Amino acid sequence: MKRSTIALLSAVAALLASCVSAPPGTKTAQAEAAPQRKERIEEYRTALVSKETRSFSDGLVDRISSYEYSPGLERLLWVHIAKPSVAVPVEKQDFSYDANGRLSQKSVFGPDAALVSSSGYEYDGQGRLTREVFKDARGAVLTQSVWSYQTDLKSAWRVLDASGVSLARTDYLYDGAMLVESRMFSGGGALTGSIRYEYKEYPSQERRIVAERYLNAAGGPDGGKVYERNADGRLLQETHTRADGRRERIISYEYGPQGELLKAVYKDGAGTPREYIAYEYVWRTDTRSVVYFE
């Protein structure tokens, strides 16, 4: 009994001592323990398309695209496009990169392995794409695309002919960093139409686009797209509409257990399937640094 009483008194004394304030000017051990910056390395997997199979609604395969990557899966090297009814590939796309790993050229070859066309790409000092030059098989420039930026946001896209004469221009308008409207102009500078974008915020705190409204030069409705998403913001279906509001096309999407797109189903305005695209993947393991405090 005596030992129990002593133990109880000791516990009470310790509790009271913990409640006594520290003398003025003295920091407690708890106050001195500031959160410490720490870092950990996480692994995650990235899905890369390895095969794309296009089929008609009756299941007949139209074409198969095969994708080949570098040994470490960092870069896409080429794409072979084949038709079951043709013995040789109907098209091959070859991709080249600069010293910084950026796409520098895309070359397209026909069934006879002869060059059909090529596209060259240029970048600014911040690594942003600024120009695409499209050439024919002889190397003659056909068209050029030029992109401009303001405060890290794409502000304009111009399409030029071989001599640099403007064919079309698109200006991009933002609310903060969010794209809210694209305005299209002719080569002469006349407004030809615009696209307005609508967004919704999802639990991930990300805003995802849910609609595109097309307007003609006079500002009247000219069709659009509506995006249907699940609770997490994943795209499930997009519906294309004409200027009169009628449905023109529907595309629905199916996903795998890790969020990879498995199938896209293209339907007509009545909802009847017309084409299927099935996707297969190879997986690349990447790492990222995560900074936290504790």
Q: Characteristics of this structure?
A:
294 residues; mainly beta; Lipocalin; 18-stranded antiparallel beta barrel; 2 helices; disordered N terminus
Explain this structure:
The chain is mainly beta. It has a domain of 104 residues: Lipocalin. It is built from two helices and 18 strands. The chain has an 18-stranded antiparallel beta barrel. The longest helix is centred in the first third of the chain and has 18 residues.
Strand content: over 45%
Number of separate helices: 2
Gap between N and C termini = 44 Å
Give the ordered list of helices and strands.
HHEEEEEEEEEEEEEEEEEE
Tally of strands: 18
Kindly provide the name of the CATH class of the domain at 190-293: Mainly Beta
Bulk shape: globular
Q: Pairing-aware structural class of the strands and helices?
A: mainly beta
Outline the secondary-structure elements.
Layout: H1 2-19, H2 29-32, E1 37-56, E2 61-69, E3 76-82, E4 91-97, E5 103-109, E6 115-123, E7 129-136, E8 141-150, E9 153-161, E10 166-175, E11 178-186, E12 191-201, E13 207-216, E14 221-229, E15 235-241, E16 247-255, E17 261-268, E18 273-293
Antiparallel strand pairs: 1-2, 1-18, 2-3, 3-4, 4-5, 5-6, 6-7, 7-8, 8-9, 9-10, 10-11, 11-12, 12-13, 13-14, 14-15, 15-16, 16-17, 17-18
Concise overview:
By secondary structure, the chain is mostly beta strands. It has helices spanning 2-19, 29-32; strands at residues 37-56, 61-69, 76-82, 91-97, 103-109, 115-123, 129-136, 141-150, 153-161, 166-175, 178-186, 191-201, 207-216, 221-229, 235-241, 247-255, 261-268, 273-293.
